[in-house]
Design goal:
heterotrimer, A mainly alpha (73), B mainly alpha (290), C mainly alpha (92), A: 73 residues, mainly alpha, 0% strand, B: 290 residues, 72% helix
Chain lengths: 73, 290, 92
């Protein structure tokens, strides 16, 4: 994945987390809360995962991480 | 229906996280017990959670043959469905029918996951998902018979009925058996797990790796927790009320499930359907006996 | 009913098993051999069993350390720790 894709994923991760943050700070009705949770928890999980994946991939010790050791599980 | 005010987003989110961690530990225990029965040391109990987090930060590769939006969206839908089931069941004590519908949509999601990636193995898995949908007779038998007994399908109502009249397990034991088979068919390595059988590599999961596999495993963990919770609530709701008691009971049922999974072979697809039909018919026989 | 009352228990137990897994692989990097009871995990399990009475999450952290050790190690120690906790719970 290219650089633009990473930036796009970061933006989407933030955007999809906004409703959850809103739900934490505002006192929303129960139905709205459930809708927010059901729709935005999986989506934001996915995009946060993509961002974390990109971070793990770009790490300098990636080579060391990949090396198979006896303690690797 | 009236719900207390303190059901805000943080409350529900914390419950979901608790269900996730506990369900992950339960699935780890399931693997551990299975391994001990088969004479292996087995993985540590956190292994299932570790796997989930490991996949979560691995590189996502989307096959060229897949239809990209469906490939991702159907997995997210599976997660969403079980989050809804968790909110309706353990948190609000709402309608059992919604959870049954979530279970049915889970089947649809399995089918979609298999079709989306375009690999022959996953297609075979999704075909089996459709086939095993015909095996879901207990899915209709259980809510119908519980409704005729208790006159309600709200989980709170079922709990109240059991507090007054004693556990449904003693009144409808064969229906409980049918529901148990339903839970068993969703357990990993179960004899009815024809959808992800190793004879077709990994069934519908074959092409799902990286982040999307992590998200999928989260959904499966939530599904395991929600199904165990439903089983305990519907048939032991009179005895088991406190969260700690629920956790102990879930651990016990997981150990029983692990024994069954370790000692039975994976049955052939048609046999899986037939056996589950037998349990559904047994459940109906239960009504005639009372 | 609130399941997240047990969130600290579960989180600390999970963290304990992870630490136990990491550290026990540092201790035992050799191929698996059947071992006798080791002193350090035994002490940790006993501490965990004792703490279960006073503050359960912390006790679970220590017991989780022993339970989570490399597969094949720490079995007797964790059983002893859990039995110790049970005995304390019954007597106190």
């Amino acid at each position: 994945m290219g650089k633009e894709n990473e930036i796009k994923n970061k933006i989407l991760a933030i955007v999809t987390s906004i409703p959850l943050l809103l739900g934490i700070f505002l006192n929303l009705p129960l139905a709205v809360t459930i809708a927010i949770l059901v729709v935005f928890v999986p989506i934001s999980t996915y995009y946060v995962g993509l961002v974390l994946m990109a971070r793990a991939k770009n790490k300098e010790d990636e080579e060391k991480r990949k090396k198979i050791t006896f303690t690797g599980y | 229906m009236y719900y207390p005010v303190n059901f805000n987003l943080i409350y529900i989110l914390l419950e979901i996280i608790t269900a996730f961690i506990f369900g992950g530990l339960l699935l780890g225990l399931h693997r551990k017990v299975m391994a001990r029965i088969q004479g292996r040391p087995g993985p540590p109990i956190v292994q299932h959670l570790l796997h989930t987090f490991k996949f979560y930060i691995k590189e996502l590769s989307i096959p060229n043959t897949s239809s990209m939006p469906l490939y991702v969206a159907i997995v997210l839908a599976m997660d969403a469905v079980w989050i809804l089931a968790l909110i309706v069941g353990p948190i609000l004590g709402g309608s059992f029918l919604i959870i049954i519908m979530c279970y049915a949509v889970h089947k649809v999601a399995e089918h979609g996951i298999g079709l989306a990636s375009g690999s022959p193995y996953t297609k075979l898995g999704s075909t089996r998902a459709v086939l095993s949908a015909t095996a879901e007779m207990p899915l209709i038998a259980v809510p119908a018979l519980v409704f005729f007994k208790t006159d309600t399908l709200l989980l709170d109502g079922i709990i109240n009925y059991q507090i007054v009249n004693g556990s449904l397990f003693t009144q409808l034991p064969l229906v409980a058996l049918a529901m148990f088979v339903l839970v068993l068919s969703k357990t990993p390595y179960s004899p009815f797990g024809i959808v992800w059988g190793k004879d077709i590599v990994s069934g519908y999961k074959t092409e799902h790796f990286g982040v999307i596999r992590g998200v999928m495993m989260m959904g499966e963990i939530l599904a395991f927790f929600a199904l165990l919770w439903c089983f305990i609530t519907i048939f032991f709701g009179g005895i088991i009320t406190a969260p700690l008691a629920y956790m102990v009971a879930m651990t016990g049922i997981t150990v029983i499930l692990a024994f069954i999974c370790a000692l039975t072979p994976m049955v052939a697809p048609y046999h899986a359907v037939m056996i589950q039909w037998i349990f559904a018919i047994l459940a109906v026989v239960n009504v005639l006996l009372i | 009913m609130a399941y997240f009352d047990y969130l600290p228990h579960l989180v600390l137990f999970t963290i304990g098993t992870l630490i136990g897994l990491e550290i026990s692989y540092k201790w035992h990097s050799e191929p698996f051999v059947k071992k006798k009871i080791e002193p350090v995990p035994l002490i940790l399990a006993l501490i965990g069993g004792g703490l279960m009475i006073f503050y359960a999450p912390l006790g679970l952290l220590f017991i989780g350390f022993v339970i989570g050790m490399r597969p094949g190690y720490g079995i007797y120690e964790s059983v002893i720790g859990i039995l110790f906790a049970l005995i304390l719970w019954v007597t106190l």
